[in-house]
Amino acid sequence: MNIIDFSLKLNGFPIKEAQNSLRKIQNIKATEYNNYINKAKEDIVRFHLNNNGFYKSLCPNGFSSWKCLPVLTKSDLQVPLEKRLSSGYSTKSVYVNKTSGSTGNPFYFAKDKFCHALTWAIIQNRFNWHNLYGKKQARFYGIPNEFIPKLKERTKDFFSNRYRFDVFDLSPSAFEKWVVEFEKKPFIYLNGYTTVILAFANYLIDKSIVLKEVCPRLKACVVTSEMCFDEDKNVMKKAFGVPVINEYGASELDLIAFQNTKNQWIINTESLFVEILDSNNKVLPYGEEGKIVITSLYNKAHPFIRYEIGDIGTIQAIDPKTILLQKLVGRKEDLVHLPSGKTAPGLTFYYITKSVMKNTGSVKDIKAIQTALNTFEIHYTANKALTDSETKAIQEALYKYLEPNLNISFYKFEQLERSKSGKLKQFTSLISS
Question: Is the C or the N end of the chain the one with fewer CB within 10 Å?
């Protein structure tokens, strides 16, 4: 038993039972998998209708069909946690945590102990696709400022064989110290926020450093929580000298999708049921873009049934067991609203800007802010300010892909502001839709 599993068992999480259950699920034949999913969906709905007064109040008509169940949003869950727990569960008997609140809507959630153990069994399974689980990790996540929460995170890092870097200081002097840590410690992989790791990668390229030459045991880089475009992955591969793996998860749910060794983004169909819905909550066919809605099939402590996570994407099925996350566009509320009435995903704006800015070679981080219907600010960090010809090229690209006559201003910063968790929100709209 490795140290992570031992720690889980010590804290009352049935990790062995969860690992055995995961193996049984994974051994179900593809031809029988729809039956497994349908039964698991019905079982969790019936459980919460019979044992959770909060969920029952959301379903006044009971459970006649899956499509008639309500689609829950985070705002639906903004009531005290104690009122959302199922009978027989208390905040003392379950795993309790809080979302980072990077979207402005933080809230506390709960998982029963088996559900949380199953999450860890799936994490173990996915990271072992690349032989990474339990190995020395260079961790690029935020950390609380308060003493007790910070101590808890440091303790978890110690028992999880992780070393955490300060993601709130992305200066060249900080990166120089990071390189020294990689020289001293036998890291096997990097894991953390895309924008932080990308900023580090750009620094290494500027200094003509390949991280694997500094840290020969390095095997991979796992990025999560933020969009990672193909061009960003190429930058990281060049800087680190190792493959880059995409992870997609939500703390209140589970690990949602993870890239395998064939570069396929495999959705977790063992403990989750993932749907793509349109704006009227109708299920979309495979390949069509819509909002991502997820059901946690094993969380008996708290109902996450048809839970709208806030992201937009597309999925595709290879077979009933193997579902691919084809595209992850971004959050549905991060939309660009234009004077003509046109809308576009905020990350489209970011992507267009970044694709032009990359030609300068000096731009590190970019953040787009909409301050009025026709007005945008581009905040960026770079070795030097953009020239007039460079800003003109960006403006013309935005006029072409969005629409003309937009007011676009550029502001250079030493560092861009991040959320308390350390994430960089790459597009922010300050206007009402």
Answer: C
